[in-house]
Request: fold
Amino acid sequence: MEIRELMKKATIFHGHICPGIAIGVLVAKYAIEHGFEHSPDEELVAVVETDNCSVDALQAILGTTYGKGNFIHKDYGKSNYKIYSRKNQKGIRLSLKKTILDKKLSRDEKIQKLLSMKPEDVFDIRNIDYDPPGMAQIEESVPCSICGELTMDSRMMNYQGKIMCIPCYKEFKE
Reply:
């Protein structure tokens, strides 16, 4: 897929064009070009270390999403991306190079510069051991004994003989 098409798809999903979307598009482009095909189910898994705009491009282009359970966010504040293919049993890691963008460039100049570069010039890229997170678990929902709202069984807390959701547990403990 051409970079313009990828940018369009990611921008529609994200809502606006920005340097973060361009970064995410380059991650997705590299993954696709190296055998990590779009994931209609859980064939791919993305493990990201940031919550910036770039991750929306991965969701839109690679099909790795929170809802399917094949998009994992680790809140480290780093532009690092691990992509695993369950089909090919391989993994890659892309890490944004620190000297990639001049802070003096405008937003549009940053986008244009990124899109004119090869992913290998933007990221430190390496193959990693195939060790993806487990498949998404589908669990029963049960009512909280305090608020009555349905909650995934694995997220329920048992406190003083009451089975409760995490927010009620936190409130109850205060």
Observations:
- Residues 102 and 110 are 8 Å apart (CA to CA).
- The chain has two domains: 3-128, 141-173.
